[in-house]
Amino acid sequence: MELKHVVIVGGGFAGLAAAKALATAPVRITLIDKENHHLFQPLLYQVATSALSSPDIAAPIRKVLRRQSNVTTLLSEVSAISLETQTVEHTYGSMPYDYLILAAGAVNDYFGHDHWEERAPGLKSLADALEIRHRVLTAFEKAEAVDASERASLLTFAVIGAGPTGVEMAGALKEIATRTLNDNFRNFDPSKARVVLIEGGPRVLSAFPEDLSANAQMQLEKLGVEVLLNTRVKDITEHGVDLENGDAIAAATVLWGAGVKGSPLAKTLGVELDRRGRVPVGKDFALPDHPNVFVVGDLAQCVDAKGEEVPGLAPAASQGGEHVAAQIWRSIDGKDRQDFTYLDKGIMATIGRSRAVAVSGPFKFTGGLAWLAWLFIHVLFLIDFRNRIAVIFEWAWAYVTFQRSARVILTREKKPVVAG
Fold first, then answer.
1. What does the DSSP 8-state code read for residue 190?
2. 325-345 burial code (b ≥16 CB/10 A, e <16)
3. DSSP readout, 22-36?
4. Exposure winner among 168, 287, 340, 396, fewest CB in 10 A?
């Protein structure tokens, strides 16, 4: 009997979980990703702020799946999906599927102002993290060489959006200025650097309970971050951020953490998407009218068996990927599908050294205890043992010395070729 072909688009938490859950299934799998690595996105901001290096939070997909003989991994970019012909169009041609798992993730959402992306990079990939690191470290370097009139803008960092990414980024930037770089410069005091966190809503970390949001804001402000709530951005220019209230923030470095939307690949399905560009799916993650097509992870808009919307979090993506794999297996065995039930293990966000907030069920944590829980959970879920050891070492070193080891600025300009 010919094995059913399962095509997985995306090697993130959902796609990788699905592939691993099908390890002993009677199927052949092709996993396609435009990058060669699985990325632990919750720690991306640590690469952006020089605490970790790229290999610490990434692992080659081929290495992760090297012992799984029923998987073929392709480094290729998917451009379109045809539900009618059951094919996936990618860099090297067209590939038919029997079952499709679409786990292409999300991209930054600039709410109709896509031109802002050049001025204010978001944080969704290693390339984004390295670009942000380059901008942050270069701003400090330039500040050493200019006079006081130019220095103020260079030492102002505006972070737009006070979700977990924005909060974690803002806290890390202030710690870099006050702790890591405090005695590295001669012409200015890095601790005077200004970090401004801009949020359009009434509180930071809106997904958290109100008391934890208030605590997180207090911890940010104690660290020295300026928090602007109920403040909307009108424009982002080469000079900084213009606000709708008429104020302006002169900042050489502007970073985006205000929102994400589904991968543009979803548009090729020809189905109606929600306002965030996600694909509405059934309780088993299958596409209505196409039971052999599953959409999971950040790209899916799914209401689970309890009637609750599945959040765009790494644990939810992993659970979803495992569930989809189980449904494919059940379909092959002629069994009825099961609805997905999300097991909520809680949410957490770190603000800085010994500063964090976390909630798990009825339990709430703040400060050092929440920070230790955050460290433990993130190390535990790193995909590769080598990564765990490297991250533990880097965090231990940073805790004792206040130093960040990945502070090298890479020159991006190529030298001209000179004929000999």
1. G
2. bbbbbebbeeeebeebebebe
3. TTTSSEEEEEEESSS
4. 396
**How far is residue 413 from each of residues 49, 119, 129, 130, 309, measured CA to CA in Å?**
22, 19, 18, 15, 45
- Give the pLDDT of the chain (420 residues) as one tens digit per residue: 689 999 999 999 999 999 999 999 999 999 999 999 999 898 898 888 888 888 888 889 999 999 999 999 999 999 999 999 999 999 999 999 999 999 999 999 999 999 999 999 999 999 999 999 999 999 999 999 999 889 999 999 999 999 999 999 999 999 999 988 888 899 999 999 999 999 999 999 999 999 999 999 999 999 999 999 999 999 999 999 999 999 999 999 999 999 899 999 999 999 999 999 999 999 999 999 999 999 999 999 999 999 999 999 999 999 999 999 999 999 999 999 999 999 998 999 999 878 899 998 889 999 989 988 888 787 777 766 556 676 666 655 555 455 555 567 766 554 444 443
Q: Rounded to an integer, what distance in angstroms lies between the CA atom of residue 96 and that of residue 320?
A: 23
Give dist(CA 367, CA 171) in Å, integer.
Answer: 13
Pairing of strands 300-301, 290-295: unpaired
Active site residues per annotation: 168
With 0-12 CB in 10 A as exposed, 13-18 as middle and 19+ as buried, what is 254?
buried
Nearest to 81 by CA among 290, 316, 349: 290
Helix (H) / strand (E) containing 388: helix 385-401
Coil, strand, or helix at residue 216? helix
What sign does the CA torsion over 8, 77, 388, 365 have? Answer: negative
| Gap between the Cα atoms of 419 and 224, Å rounded | 53
CA distance 294 to 324: 7
For residue 139, the Cα-to-chain-centroid distance in whole angstroms is 24
Token readout for 376 is 């433990």
